[in-house]
Amino acid sequence: GQFKREDVLPFIGPPLYETFSGINAEKCDEMISMYRAFNHEKHDELVTEYETVYETLDELKKAGYQLGIVTTKLRDTVNMGLKLTGIGAFFDTVVTLDDVKHPKPD
Prior knowledge:
Layout: H1 5-8, H2 16-24, H3 28-46, H4 53-62, E1 68-70, H5 75-85, E2 93-95
Parallel strand pairs: 1-2
Helix pairs in contact: 2-3, 3-5
């Protein structure tokens, strides 16, 4: 552990542009490209499903809830995770960075 939980939490959620421009605005685009390349290369070995997620989604779907995802990730990355974990069928709607003009928090 080089980093503590509180060091990493601010990086979870905001769009990559917001995160990386806060670190180094001049190298923001380069950092995003490197991050996305690494993320895709290592995706399947690093992504794991949280305990009870599948069962919880299954129960919600069986109870008639419509489920959706809204994320600042690109669609191809989201699809990789949904396929890997087998949870894609639970979601009626998936909204990604590719689908919006202004990412959150707008």
